[in-house]
Amino acid sequence: MRSAKKNRKRTGKHSPVRKRFFDNRLCLCTYSDPIIIACPKCKQPGQLRLRKQEHEQRDWQARRFFGCEVCGHSFDWKPRQVIHGTDNWDKVLPLFLQIPCCGRNLWAFNEKHLGFIEDYASAQIRERIGSANASLASRLPQWIKSAENRGTVLKAVRTLRRSLQT
What we know:
Elements (H helix, E strand, L loop, with lengths): L1 H10 L8 E3 L12 E4 L6 E6 L13 E4 L6 E4 L11 H4 L5 E4 L2 E4 L3 H12 L2 E3 L8 H4 L2 H4 L4 H16 L1
Parallel strand pairs: 1-8
Antiparallel strand pairs: 2-3, 3-4, 4-5, 6-7
Helix pairs in contact: 3-6
């Protein structure tokens, strides 16, 4: 114990604080408004939003509206899949936030969802209270959960975040 204190005093460094992640037990549908997609006409990012009158219901089956601010293309969309499932959304909608990562496709609905993935991947300690098998944290694919892929996943998240700023 004394030698560790001496070393700390000499170097002025403290042992790193481990970042913790607490599962908020929310499902994917919590992160689904808006869904940032590539406009089918001009490929620029746009927001697929719940209709205002259905916003309070937060029903995964609610109609959503897309209006491109660049080219003016617009449409209504009603999901045929359960939004709180983690099916391959990159194949269902033209998601804007997607990138090849670890031989798979890392995708997110929006910046809030991207932040969740970043918080999870960067944490060295991940905690869950009780059984929350439907939570997004429990449903993330193993390759995102793997500490071995932490650096690659975080690099991909940063790249996606930069794509939102341009």
